[in-house]
Structure formats: C-alpha cells, structure tokens
Design goal:
The complex is a heterodimer of chains A (about 300) and B (about 450).
Chain A lengths: L13 H17 L12 E6 L5 H12 L3 E5 L12 H10 L4 E6 L4 H8 L4 E6 L5 H13 L8 E5 L6 H9 L6 E5 L16 E2 L2 H4 L5 E4 L4 H5 L6 H8 L3 H4 L7 E3 L12 H10 L6 H19 L4
Parallel strand pairs in A: 1-2, 1-3, 3-4, 5-6, 5-8, 6-7, 8-9
Helix pairs in contact in A: 1-5, 1-12, 2-12, 5-6, 5-12
Chain B lengths: L1 E11 L4 E10 L2 E6 L9 E3 L4 E4 L1 E6 L12 H10 L2 E6 L10 H14 L3 E4 L15 H6 L5 E2 L8 H14 L3 E3 L4 H4 L4 E2 L2 H6 L3 E2 L1 H18 L3 E3 L5 H12 L5 E4 L1 H5 L21 H13 L4 E2 L8 H4 L16 H10 L6 H16 L14 E5 L4 E2 L18 E2 L2 E7 L2 E5 L2 E2 L9 H4 L7
Parallel strand pairs in B: 1-4, 1-5, 6-7, 7-8, 9-10, 10-13, 11-12, 13-14, 14-15
Antiparallel strand pairs in B: 1-2, 2-3, 5-16, 16-19, 17-18, 19-20, 20-21
Helix pairs in contact in B: 1-2, 4-7, 7-8
The chains are: A alpha/beta (about 300), B alpha/beta (about 450).
Chain lengths: ~300, ~450
C-alpha cells in the first residue's frame, strides 16, 4: 500500500498521509500506557550528517518505543567520508543488518539516488534544502490538535523560505489538506520564481499578519548574513521579525509555530516571545510540535517498516 | 579516385540549391553537381532520394584529450562526430593540460590525424591555464592551428583582460568564443532559477548571470570590431540583447544547443543528472525565444556543446555530478524530428545552421557542395526511424537526456574529403565489418 520510502511528500496521496496521521493519533493515546513490539528484532540505521537535536532524538526514541534497536552513525561532517562514496557508506551500514535507514544529509537529491540502490525503506530526516517530510506531518498533526480545521486554514510562512526544506515539504502537503499557504520574506530569501502559482507573497510582515490563522516562523541562519542575502540579522529582524507591534496585528485565535531551534531576537523578538508565553501559552505550539514529532515518527516507522 | 552519387536530394545552404541532383566526387573534392551527370566512368552509389547536406560542422565540442581520456578521446569523439554526420568539429581547450600552449595544440591535431575521421579544429585558450588573468600566446596558438580562442567552461572574469585579448585576436582575424556567465551571480548554482529548481531545493543559475556577460561582450566588441562568438545562448534576456546589438550593427555570431532548443528545466525533475548542464535548461518561454531567434537569424549556429562524462561521475548526487551532455550522435536526428518534421525549420535552414554558418564563423572550409569545395557531405535518410540508444554510442559519454526518444532523419553516410567515414552506423577504422569501397560503390559506372 505504501511507498517504500519517505523522501518526497508529493509521492503520497491524501489518504496515505491521513493514515499516517491516524496512526500518530493512536500512538499519542497509547504511548506510556502499553509496550509496543512493532519493531521487535529490527535494527534501524540512524545516520545524521548534519547537526540535529530534536529530530534525531525523536527518531531514536520512536524506534525504542516500538521495540526496535538503533544503530547510530553520526559523522561530524561529510568530510569524514574519506573517499568512500555515499552509496558504499549506506550499503555498509545496511549490511550490518538493518530493516530501514533514517538519514539526514545536506545534499538535495542524494536520497532519491540512494533509495534506488537499497532495498530497505529509506526515511528522510531532512535532506538539504529539499524536503523534511516528518516535520510537515507533525506540523499538520499539531495544527489539528490545536483545534484547527485544515480546510481553508490560512498558514503564513515567514523567513528563509529559499533554504527551507520544511517550507518545501509544506508546499507539497498542505494544499492537499485544503490549507492556504502564504509567505512573508524578503526577495533574497524568497525569489518571485519560487512562489507557487496562486499563493500570496508578502514583502512586509506587518501587512501579512492579520491574514494568518497560523504564523509559521522559520529559522534564519547566521550564514545568510555571511552570504550577503540579508544585510544583517538585525535588518532582517526589523522588517520580518515578529515583534510586539506585530503581535498586536494578529487575529485573536492565531497560533504560532516554529520547527526549531529558535533564534530569539531574529525571527521573533525576545519581548514578543516572552509576551506570548506569559499571556497566551496555548497559542504557542513549539513544544507541542516537538512532542508530536515522536508520535508521527512512530507512525511512519510502523507503517513503512513494521507490519503496518 | 572518382565516385558518382546518384539519387540525391541536394540541400546546399551556400547556393540555396534544394532539389534532385547527382554529385561527382573526384580526389577528395566535389567535381560536379548537376541534375544529371552523364558519361562519367566512375563507381556509382545510388542513395535513392535521401537528403544530402554539406558535412556538418560542430563548433563546440569537448574531446577531453589530453587528460580526460576516461570521458572521451580524440578518436572516440571523432568516431561519434562522423557517426552523427559531422565532418568537422572544433574542440574546446579546457583539457588537462589545456590548449594554452603549442604542445597540447599539436598533440590534439596529431591524435586527430591518426584517427583520420573528422576534421578537428582546435580552439586555443584565451588565457593561460584558463585562469582569466594573463593572455595565452595567441599568435603562437594560431600559428599551430588554433581556429579561435575561448576559456569555455568559464568566462574571463575581468573585462579589462578580455578587452585586450579581443583586440589581439582581432589582429589575427580569429573569433573570440565567449562562455557568458557572471560567476558571482551563478556561483554554486546547478539548475535554472525556475519552479523546478526551486522545488528541488537546488541552488540556482539565474538567466541574468548569462545576460549581463552577453551585454558586456557585445559592448566590448562594439569598440574592438573583432570576431565575437557567443557560445550556448540559453535565455530570452540574452536574445533581447542580441536584437539590440543587431540594430546597432555590432558584429557577432551566436550559437544554441539542441538541448536548449528541445528541453526545458522540467527535464531535471527527480534529480536527473543527465539533464544537468551549464548553462542550465530554462523555461518554456526561454526555449521559444531561442527558436524564434534561430528563425530570425539572431542566433545563426547550432552547436552541440558535446560534453562527455563517465557514468560514475554522472551517478553522483545532483550537486556533485558534473555539468554536461553529449550531443554529436543525436543532434541531427533530434533536430530533424523535432524542428524539420514539425515545420519549424526547413531542411535547407537546418543544413545552414549546422554547416555553413559555423564554418564561416570559424573561417574553415565546409558548408557548401559547390564544385571545387572539399567533398564533405552527409546523407540523411528522412524516413528511417530509430530510437536514441546511448549504449550504442561511439562516444565514451552516455550522458544524454534524450535516451529513448523516437527519431527520424538519420545520418546514414558521412564523407570527409571524398572518403566514406561512416556508413549505416559503422565507422571506418572502428567498426569491424566496415565495408570496402568496392562494397560501397557498384563498379557499373557511367550510364
């Protein structure tokens, strides 16, 4: 029923995505109440070639919760490869006896190539600027949990869209659920040519905020300043950071999301973050996103690797 | 040695003659062309109504030798050339070591002479080591056979350096062939700045990175008044600039590749490295504008930018796989099928774009079937159908995005200087059962 791999969300139907979410809801209910054996006897290779805290921990915990064993390989950088091709590295890892591979790497397109060469399920935990499928699934799950009806929901994505694998996964999946997506970003971080047909691109955050039911902030890395894509993070924050003035413009029920880790003072000001956490903690979904990551990844592993 | 080719449908872009004819070849030259040639005692070949073009001329080929022999050699590249109907190729200097010194310049020509297939015209480097800093020894390279100068694969970044080189090249009467790319705008890019590239999360090469250098070269040549040739034009912005230059009488020639005429950025979807080339495949509007420029004469040359790579290099992930596609063995049938059959170009126009115009831009023989000219010709079977099959290429490169395309208009015979180099897919000195002259031409000569 399911595709072998989870790399590109556009290769999944709405029905398939719904069944993952349904399974995730099951795990949210049942985790902690009982023991699962879905992955009993399975070794799952987890290999991260980029730094990660939450995604890696979340996948590892999901594997353990399902009764499987983590075979972890975490080179500090890709330069540790020492001339071996990526294909050889992956095949070596799998030859130790793996039922699936969970992989993170900085090169877009790498996983399509590797997945063709290995027989076990290949699960993306973030692939360069290409896609981050489980993040999108957990975000959809979190929006629903916050009480939103996805049909007609207005999600505003703010920040470094160009370099965001999360944004690309969202663009694949959110429209399937009837979600309307708009963007707020400066041209170097969202060129006109990247805006999907029909979507609105705001070049001013203040103007965009009243539209949104969900404000989805993306991390803006220091590297973008070094590349000259933004004159400085301060300039970025002045025009596209969420601040107290911005908060006064959102609708009363608007929720805030972020894939983490947050740069306080850049995508959201310290004052705005404090105000939100003090005044309306239920509208800040950051922690819920992290927690739901576990259930969604359990669901993915179950359906792709376990008996399903 | 004389031979009479009967049953030709002649397409001579130089004279404009298009129609049934017979061609008498004598001692490597065209002796006579006429509707009917009587009373000649010569072996005869009847090609039964096939088209005859002048031998094709490809002014943009990477033969990879010296240094890149796992990708291609002069021998395999020349075999691919005659297999594709090309009698002449100009090879780019980005070899290792490059064609920036007489030793490599002579080496390539020796290899070409011993291959004995296509004519090979080396292009010399513009700058030493292709680094864009100091001029290469242009006069010396010209003396040793260079037919033009280029740092192809990269631009000369410094406009001041290029300006002086263009002036010097103009003294020698040879073209400067520019790879138009502003590296600060394209740096690190792998695909066109369009919906597909953005969807794939790949760094992009925007059209303006090409157009700003096209503008610079045109403005420089407005002053220098030398021979300027713009390689592999890929976007509508560049075409607009060519129109601007034409209106002002600025001298230039420009080429487009078959892949930029036939494909768009969608070919790289799902990270197909066989469609990764520089400049990248662009939008449908860009492609339409290139075709229109060809019909308007703003772009007057089709060149393949034949860029062979090994399969193991192309099997890398998209960002690390090299740029380039092969083209010698597919250009003619693809363009025949997609442009001539669809009435976008006439056979005579295609023949001009692929033989006469590049020959003129390089200042080399070719592009004509007039009596007295070298007997370089290709016989094209308009009706025979085939499929692009990379595993059958003579080139060592199999990197084509056209695999499996159904094509017509196959080259079935390539003659260079009166000698048959390719017949029915067999290449002289390469294919074991290549026919002897006696098998090719019936001795029942005359009429």
């Amino acid at each position: 029923m399911f595709a072998k791999d989870l790399i590109d969300l556009s290769s999944f139907s709405l029905g398939e995505l719904e069944s993952i979410l349904e399974r995730a809801a099951f795990y949210r209910e049942e985790t902690g109440r009982r023991t699962f054996r879905v992955l009993e006897g399975h070794n799952i290779t987890v290999s991260f070639w980029e730094h990660s805290t939450r995604t890696r921990l979340s996948f590892e915990l999901a594997i353990k919760e399902l009764g499987g064993r983590v075979v972890g390989y975490y080179p500090e950088t890709a330069s540790e490869q020492k001339g071996e091709t990526m294909e050889d590295t992956v095949k070596t890892l799998i030859s130790l006896g793996s039922s699936a591979v969970v992989f993170r790497h900085s090169l877009p397109g790498l996983f399509h190539r590797l997945a063709q060469k290995v027989e076990v399920p290949f699960i993306s935990a973030g692939e360069g600027c290409y896609q981050h499928p489980t993040q999108t699934l957990l975000d959809i799950f979190t929006m629903r949990q916050a009480g939103f009806d996805l049909q007609g929901l207005k999600v505003l994505m703010v920040g470094d869209i160009l370099h965001s694998r999360v944004a690309r996964s969202h663009m694949c999946a959110l429209p399937l659920f009837g979600v309307e997506v708009a963007f707020a970003a400066p041209p170097p971080l969202l060129p006109d040519g990247m805006v999907p047909p029909g979507a609105t691109c705001y070049r001013n955050l203040e103007e965009a905020l009243p539209w949104a039911d969900v404000v989805y902030l993306l991390r803006v890395q220091k590297e973008r300043q070094e590349q000259g894509l933004v004159p400085s993070l301060g300039e970025y924050a002045a025009l596209f950071g969420l601040n107290l003035a911005g908060l006064s413009r959102v609708k009363s029920g608007t929720c805030f999301m972020h894939p983490g880790p947050i740069n306080p003072g850049v995508e959201i000001s310290h004052e705005a973050l404090r105000a939100l956490e003090n005044v309306a903690p239920e509208r800040v979904l950051f922690r819920k996103q992290v927690k739901n990551g576990l259930y969604v990844r359990m669901a993915v592993l179950d359906l792709l690797v376990g008996s399903g | 040695m004389k031979v009479l080719i009967k049953g030709c449908f002649l397409c001579d872009p130089c004279s404009g003659w298009e129609g049934p004819a017979e061609i008498l070849v004598k001692e490597g030259k065209i002796e006579a062309v006429a509707p009917s040639i009587e009373g000649v005692d010569a072996p005869v070949m009847d090609i039964k109504g096939c088209y005859v073009f002048p031998g094709l001329v490809d002014m943009h080929v990477h033969l990879r030798e010296p240094g890149g022999e796992s990708k291609e050699t002069v021998f395999t590249g020349c075999a691919a050339a005659v297999a594709g109907g090309f009698a002449s190729v100009a090879c780019m200097p980005n070899t290792s070591p490059p064609l920036d010194r007489k030793e490599t310049m002579l080496y390539v020509q020796q290899r070409a002479a011993s291959a004995g297939l296509a004519r090979v015209y080396p292009i010399g480097a513009l700058t030493k080591e292709l680094r864009g800093l100091e001029p290469a020894p242009l006069w010396e390279l010209a003396r040793e056979g260079a037919r033009g100068f280029s740092d192809d694969g990269r631009p000369v970044k410094d406009g001041g350096v290029l300006y002086k080189i263009m002036q010097w090249a103009s003294l020698l009467g040879l073209p400067v062939i520019s790879h138009c790319e502003e590296l600060s705008l394209s740096a690190g890019g792998a695909v066109h700045a369009g919906p597909c590239g953005y969807r794939m999360g790949l760094p992009v090469i925007p059209s303006c990175s090409e157009a700003v250098i096209v503008a610079r070269e045109l403005l420089l040549n407005r002053e220098v008044k030398g021979k300027l040739h713009l390689a592999h034009i890929s976007c509508k912005e560049s075409v607009e600039l060519l129109g601007w230059a034409r209106e002002r009488g600025i001298d230039f020639t420009a080429e487009v590749t078959p892949h930029h005429l036939l494909l768009t950025e969608e070919a790289v979807e799902s990270f197909n490295t066989d469609a990764k080339m520089n400049p990248p495949l662009r939008s449908p509007e860009d492609r339409d504008s290139l075709l229109q420029a060809l019909r308007d004469g703003l772009i007057n040359i089709i060149a393949t930018d034949h860029a062979p790579h090994t399969s193991w290099e192309k099997e890398k992930d998209f960002l690390n796989a090299p740029f380039g596609v092969v083209g010698l063995e597919t250009a003619l049938p693809l363009l025949w099928t997609e442009l001539v059959e669809k009435k976008l170009l006439s056979p005579l126009e295609l023949a001009g774009l692929m033989s006469l115009n590049p020959a003129k831009a390089l200042g080399v023989p070719g592009g004509t079937l007039a009596p007295g000219s070298p007997a370089d010709l290709v016989v094209v079977d308009a009706n025979r159908e085939s499929e692009v099959a990379p595993e059958k290429f003579f080139s060592r490169g199999r990197n084509t995005p056209f695999k499996g395309w159904k094509v017509k208009g196959l080259p079935v015979l390539t003659m260079v200087e009166g000698d048959v180099k390719m017949y029915e897919g067999l290449v002289k000195g390469f294919s074991e059962n290549f026919p002897s002259p006696a098998e090719l031409f019936s001795e029942a000569g005359g009429s």
